[in-house]
Amino acid sequence: ILMLLLKGKSMSKEIVEKYITLYNTFAIDEMIELFTENCLFENVSNSQGCLSTRGKEELRTLAKMGATAFS
Predict the structure, then answer these.
(1) What pLDDT, on a 0 to 100 scale, did the predictor assign at position 9?
(2) Cα separation of 5 and 8, whole Å?
(3) Closest by alpha carbon to 17, among 6, 37, 7?
(4) CB–CB of 54/38 below 8 Å?
(5) Which pTM does this prediction carry?
(6) I need a surface site. Which of 8, 19, 27, 59 has the fewest CB within 10 A?
């Protein structure tokens, strides 16, 4: 399940699709701009538990680590 709180906008199919496209193409800076400054990002995995970040900069750091691991 993907839940996003994006700059006061309601989550729409277009926003979710944009997030997924940016995520899959490692467009980290553009992806981060979808989030508010005080965002809470949680990645929940059945095998590894929950990883969470607070704020855009923590999310940016996590995204860059992920991009390095998967690119």
Answers:
(1) 56
(2) 7
(3) 6
(4) yes
(5) 0.72
(6) 8
The predicted-structure confidence for 10-68, as pLDDT tens digits, reads as follows: 667 788 889 899 999 999 999 999 888 888 888 887 777 788 899 999 999 999 988 88
For residues 32 and 59, the answer to whether their CB atoms sit within 8 Å is: yes
If you search the block for the tokens 């006061």, which residue do you land on?
A: 8
Cβ–Cβ < 8 Å for 26, 20: no
Is 8 exposed, middle or buried (CB count within 10 Å of its CB: 0-12, 13-18, 19+)?
A: exposed
Whole-angstrom distance, CA of residue 45 vs CA of residue 36 = 24
pLDDT at residue 1 greater than cutoff 50: no
